Amino acid sequence: VLPNQLNWKELSDRQLDEMMQRWIADTADDPAVYGYYLKDEPGAADFPGLARAVAALKRLAPDKIAYINLFPNYATLGANDLSQLQTDTFEEYLERFCTEVQPPFISYDNYQVQYSMDLENTAIAASYLTNLMQVRSAALKHRLPWRQIVSANQIRPQTTIPSPANLALQAYTSLAAGANCIDWYTYYQGGYAYAPVDGRDERSQTWYYLAEINRQLQLVGPQLNTLHSLGVYLLNHTAPGYPIAPLAIQDTIECANPLMVGSFGGQEGERYGMLVNLSLTHSAKITLKLAIAEGCLQMFSTTTGRYLPFLAGKPLWLTAGQGMLLRAL
User: Fold this and answer.
1) Which of 68, 217, 226, 288 is deepest in the core (most CB within 10 A)?
2) Residue 80's pLDDT band (boundaries 50, 70, 90)?
3) What share of the chain in percent tops pLDDT 70?
4) What is the pLDDT of residue 298?
5) CB–CB of 234/259 below 8 Å?
6) Bond preceding residue 186 cis, omega within 30 of 0
């Protein structure tokens, strides 16, 4: 039986332990296995059973993770037999998952960037941005790492296809909001079109777009995972759940494009910021008005993997959907 078809709460403690022990024994010599898939997109009624499965895995294989992926905020709300989330709000769904299941991290999927036709449908685009803040808030409250699964194919026949811009935007908005990992759905084509590996098991153009974004993530991701998220703001754009940017940020950044700004703190008290161009059609020219000493502001290069000095008076340019990490010493 596939894990996603199991009703975990119907298994006895003995049955649950025996199943877990089989999984562990079957993969004991496989260094690629770092955890076990328990459930995709559970409703709240699944949480008690998943809590037992997570606790059993923690007891039997403490070095492995229990992988559960949640619905996004556009899943249906309401009663157990009428909805997907089986709660009155998405916030309640997240809170119950964290408190009842006690997972090692929060994972959820969201494909609204392409459902919104590359952000042209502003209501759908806003739900994507709001979902980031909802999950971030729950993760901070419960001190959990979190990750977002985003689209790397044409999610529906009527939606846009992957592009360098929309792949970058999905990745960098996740990072700017404090996500610790980005996952891509899907790698192989299956029932979708324009996936990285096509129906002939050959690399498509999407593969090369995605390889470039993943190359950047391999460099900037470890930098961000040593930091703690302090705040997330939007400039020249609004979405529910986002606080107004402090005047210090508003007065520092000059840009005609909509931007996301993630604020981070370092272990030595350094301050970091990630800027993301929210336009999928235009490059962003960003002027930073900072009264700091020469050499005290640095830009992280996703070509060299090193911090480079910011040249005062010279504008920053971000292509559509692109992000950049800055460090103030």
Assistant:
1) 68
2) confident
3) 98
4) 92
5) yes
6) yes
Q: In what order do the strands lie in the sheet with 259-265?
A: 228-235, 259-265, 271-277, 323-328, 297-300, 307-309
Helices in the chain by DSSP H: which ranges? 13-26, 47-60, 90-96, 112-115, 122-142, 164-176, 205-224, 247-250
60 torsion bin: left (phi>0), alpha (psi -120 to 50), beta (else)? alpha
Q: Which of 194, 190, 114 is nearest to 150 (CA)?
A: 114
**Residue 268 pLDDT:** 86
- Alpha carbon distances (Å) from 305 to 221, 233, 299, 301, 325: 11, 26, 10, 5, 11
Closest CA to 135 of 174, 101, 87: 174
Across-strand partners of 235? 259
Digit-coded pLDDT (tens) for 122-169: 999 999 999 999 999 999 999 999 999 999 999 999 999 999 999 999
